Amino acid sequence: MSRARHLPSITNGQVRWHESLIQGGLGFCALISIITTATIIFILTRESVGFFQVIPVKDFLFGTSWVPMFEPSSFGVLPLLWGTLVITVGAALICIPIGLASAIYLSEYASAKQRSIIKPVLELLAGIPTVVYGYFALTFVTPALQYLFPDIQVFNALSGSIVVGIMVLPMVATLSDNALRAVPDSLRQGAYALGATSYEVTTQVVVPAGLSGIIASFLLAISRAIGETMAVTLAAGATPNLSFTFLESIQTMTAYIVQVSMGDTPAGGVAYQTMFAVAGLLFVITLLLNVIATFILKRYREVYQ
Amino acid sequence: MSSQSINAETVTTELDNILEMENVSVAYAGNYAVKNVSFNVARNAITSIIGPSGCGKSTLLRCLNRMNDFILDVSIEGKIRFEGQDIYAREVDAVEVRHHMGMVFQKPNPFPKSIFKNVAWGPTVNRYQGSITELVERSLKQASLWDEVKDRLNDSALGLSGGQQQRLCIARALAMEPNVLLMDEPCSALDPISTAHIEDLMFDLKSRYTIVIVTHNMQQASRVSDYTAFMEMGNLIEFDESERLFTRPSNQRTEDYVSGRFG
């Protein structure tokens, strides 16, 4: 007796066209950011080339006076670069130690209950609009600094650095906390079993093991400080200044770009093109920072299992 | 503390038992994992704790060097004495207790540092006075790992095989020159050859250290240990010399377990 055998069906009879539609849609979304980046680079390059045809690169990069709007004009970017550097380094000096210490406390010392209060508060701090931080600098930080430095200006670099430091602090704290909590517990147990104290375990085993994530949080915070505009303009003003006192008004690269784009500078002139040259320089700096960060992470991180 | 002074202590003290457990109960959030367990650990011998999964053997082991302190909502009753001193007494520093009790975990957990630094780290944080280099070499030799790693001490410990990593963890514990070595299923993640290696090692270490090993491998317990405690559901069912416990157990439940009828 022969049994009828049916071949199992492995064809569908129809093309799953919606699959390729979804793939295409997702791919297009990913492409948007690439197209945007490419367009920005293109425009920055085109306008900067126009600028550098008039102003020599040497005068731009090493000039110590930035007077783009008035005659006699001068296009030395160093005062703006210095302004950005002061704000960034000052902010880093505040957010890195305090942020890392908060992260260590949250991840290694705090009880579950303390964590459940502190972490949302930190995240709330990260959600405050930057203009509010600018106001905070102007109406609280600077008046407070006046007690210490009576001759401080209303707009000053110190207050700008402090307020940007506080602003990026939650980013360092939450991202470093995540990095520390990703370190496997077996490493902590191994270290405690060797008769180490909590402090030794944290600083010598847990932090080195989570270092790549911690450094990534530092770099994100630093690039955010470099790009910060609103709070800095409100706190530190808009006076290109190569001063070393930190108590005077300065201008950062981003604050300058706002000043030009908001003002009535005619499009197409050299003064207008300065905006693109400054933005191009900013782009190169952040790109270099990213490259250096990638290199450091590859070279020095402790990989755990 | 050097090994010489440990031997000297052995002579001067009249205690034969380095660790004594008296009515030890451990509860996590009110659920008892260990119930009223009492037995002693003989000096310079290997004592194994066996039993089915979840019987409380690891919990008990982790009480001996106060590793349960990190777990929230744990309560420990009864007395655990190390060299006659209650290790849960108010004035006792848990960090000091752990100086005297090395621990090797179920899964090898070397630090993501070099082989050298893995062994040197414990003595360094505890301000070891002698030569760290000599101590590292001696510890790696005791853990019979020296010949395999002596030319690459500065390489990452994570490049070693699982068995080598576990011997590195043993070397790391030995570098603290502990009195007791606690091993929590040290071979469960290893292949048979690495396991044999570590069992041989335990025989060698017996003359200088007291070893307490938790295992669910009965063959291993009967091969390596002098004394065996059999636990079930948090209770100590039987404690005896291994030879007797595995051949002529006095309790029916022990017999069922060691003969493979359950577990």
UniProtKB/TrEMBL annotation, chain A:
GO terms for cellular component: plasma membrane. Keywords: Cell inner membrane, Cell membrane, Membrane, Phosphate transport, Transmembrane, Transmembrane helix, Transport. It comes from the Bacteria. The chain crosses the membrane at residues 21-44, 80-105, 117-138, 158-180, 201-222, 270-297. It is a multi-pass membrane protein. One of its GO terms (molecular function) is phosphate transmembrane transporter activity. Residues 81-293 form the ABC transmembrane type-1 domain. It holds the Pfam family BPD_transp_1. GO terms for biological process: phosphate ion transport. InterPro entries: MetI-like, MetI-like_sf, Phosphate_PstC. It is found in: Cell inner membrane; Cell membrane. Gene3D superfamilies: MetI-like. Belongs to the binding-protein-dependent transport system permease family. CysTW subfamily. Part of the binding-protein-dependent transport system for phosphate; probably responsible for the translocation of the substrate across the membrane. This is Phosphate transport system permease protein. It comes from OM182 bacterium MED-G28. The gene is pstC.
